Each structure stands twice: as C-alpha cells, then as structure tokens.
Amino acid sequence: MLDFKRNFSLKPFNTFGLDEKAHYFITISEEAQLEELVEHPIFKENKVLWLGGGSNMLLTQAFDGLVVKLEFKGKELEFINDEVARLWSAGGENWHDLVQWTIAQGLGGLENLSLIPGNVGTAPIQNIGAYGVELKDHFESLRAFDLQEKRWVNFDREACQFGYRQSIFKSSAKGRYVVSGVGFRLKRRNYDLRTEYGAIGAKLEALDLEPSIENIAKAVIEIRQSKLPDPQEIGNSGSFFKNPIVSNQDHQRLKGEHPDLVAYPAGEGKMKLAAGWLIERAGWKGYRKGDAGVHNNQALVLVNYGKARGAEIKALAEAIQESVYRTFAVALEAEVNII
To answer: Which residues are designated catalytic?
Structure first.
C-alpha cells in the first residue's frame, strides 16, 4: 500500500534545514513498492524529486510535485579470497555508517571517504571523493530501475562513465535511473593506504599514529570536523562548489600572480585548483548576510544559520561565483543540486 502525504515539510530531509514543502511525499523501502509507484497516477501526473540523504541539494522553493524518499536498507558481504571481499549495500544506507562498518570488518578502501554526508545510493551519481580517493576506485557495480523502460538493470564501472564528481547519472542519463544498491570491491589485507593527499600524513604524525585503515579514518574525521560544520548544528551541504580543473597554462598564469595558490595534478596536462582557497582569497570566508553565510573555518561551505531561505543561499553562491571569476578568471561550478 502506497502512503502518500500532502503539503509535507522537507526540513528534516535536507541538510541545509530548509523548511520547504512538497505537494506530495512518499517513502519507498522495497523494490516492489517502486515498481508499483511508477504506475500510480500521482507519479505519472507530477514532476518527481528523488531524495536520498538530502545532503547534496539546495531547495530554493516549495516543490510542486512528488518527492520520493528512498529508504532501501541492508548489506551483504562475500569473501572472495584471502585478499579481496565483495560488499553489496542497499542505497538507503548512510554512507559514513557504511564506511565505519567496513573498517570494523577489517576491509580497506573506503577509509579516506569517512564522514562524507549522504546515502550510498547517491554516492555513485556524484562519484564522491576525498583525500585522493574516489568512489570509482573501489566500485564494482550498481543496480538501478530504468524509469524509461520500467525494468531493473545493472551497471558496471565502465557503464557508469565516472569522472570528477561526475557520472552518466548526472549527464546523459540524468533522471532516468533510480539506484537501489551499490557493490564494492574491498581489500582484506595488503591495503593501499593513501596518506599523501591533504593533511592526512601531518594529522597522523600529530596524533602519533601509524598508517592503518582505522587511523586514516580517524585522521580524516578529525580533519573534516575541524573544517566542516555538523549539519545538525548549522545547516549546510558540505562542499558547495567543485574544485575547478584548469589547463597547466592557466595554472602557471595564476601561480605567477598568486605564488601561494593551492592546486593538485589532475592528469592530462591539467591541474585541480582548491575552490576553498579561491573563495577565501576573494574575501568571502566568514561572510554573512542575514542567516545565509560562508563558514568561518572553510570557505567552500555555505551555511544556513537558522532561518535563511534557499533563494538567499543561491544568491550568495552566485555572488561568490561572479567574484571569483572577476578576481581569477576561473569559473566555479556548484557541486550541490539547486532545485
């Protein structure tokens, strides 16, 4: 039985804490419910917003349609051999909780992705990444419902067309598929420990810890908590903008003008610039207008101090983009979905 709610507040379901309403709202926890939903008149007659953890979106107005909250739960673990394990997780599982669970099982690969907000099902859509690791590095497959052909399909890594914070689900197949579960290939020993990116190595040294999957996760959590506000305390969606990728030529130009520019190799004659550095240098760190602002500790994070509207945060984001482009001739692209 499908249980639709009307004029339903989305405030508890988005990490910005924005009190916008959905005309219709429903929670789906079984694949059979999804199959039933797509045949229902309410689904067919309304625009639809699929909602996971609500951590990667900015609601700028009430949603005059149907919001579907995906709550698929469960996980399965298969030991392939002494070296490798295969993990299957339902899309409604919390991402950080899953990462911590893998570490508790002695499985390596996802530790650098600790404390990233959101659910498992949206992780491949964004190809989430942090501290030198991306989801695609340990991804094996996913299961999704094809809304166009109304059937379940599987995607391997190649079919997902992963890129930097990108996948086929954000480009040519945007809006066509609903992810119900994701499969990973993780290590049981001889871990590929990544400590060279960001401040992980320095944090391990400061904590007097040897590199391990547990200690890398601990270092990442401490680093992220020192920079990023808890959405339970201050509404935010983590990193609001992507780190822009520029040519080596543009990087050299900027480096000549700003010797302390923060950047990392991005392959194929390109460099990835630290968006937070650009925003801070343009003078926005700690900025606040009403209840919309830029976080004091991390300029990459836009925040809702309590009663900001999504439209106010969007206007702030646009002002930052204009300012950074005027200052550096670099275009910033939003990482969050603006709705």
So the answer is: 165, 239, 335
